[in-house]
């Protein structure tokens, strides 16, 4: 409305393409949120839930639904009649972790192919990424199961993104774009690998300038 009152043309742009997921995953998400009662609870869209599209070079995708892992039945101990060599209860987290490591090893050892069309290659352990909702018993069980199976795993090391040099460069670039008068942020961004300028280049740009860079 403000654009129309100012006599300016406003072209809405729909972001329907995803750079992170394959078509099967995106279509599954769209299917789950297809009902208006569901998508309106998380998305303010008047013309329906937006359909997501995968990029043409997106890799293959697959969704598998596994049965819920449940704990083994616990045998009630009845005094002296209870067996001392009974099998211990296996937690659902450990069961799930063992299944995950078995599936990963099967995919790699069977020569499963991955990659987009024209760049197919055998799957490697380094291609795997296991996402968990939070760090807890399941997370620790997965790490332990992978290590016991001899599968290389990065472990539980944490990386604070805002302290990584690449993220700092991107944040400086964002600061410069949001506030064009911030010459310091712009200079830092220009000297980063994003642009590759050096001190001499900055001097040529900034020397005898009458305003902001």
Automatic annotation (TrEMBL):
Which keywords describe this protein according to UniProt?
ATP-binding, Helicase, Hydrolase, Nucleotide-binding
Q: Does the keyword Hydrolase apply?
A: yes
List, for all copies, the residue spans of the domain called UvrD-like helicase C-terminal: 46-213
Q: Which terms does the record give in the GO molecular function aspect?
A: ATP binding; helicase activity; hydrolase activity
Q: Which InterPro entries match?
A: DNA_helicase_UvrD-like_C, P-loop_NTPase
Q: What is this protein called?
A: UvrD-like helicase C-terminal domain-containing protein
The answer to keyword Protein biosynthesis applying to this record is no
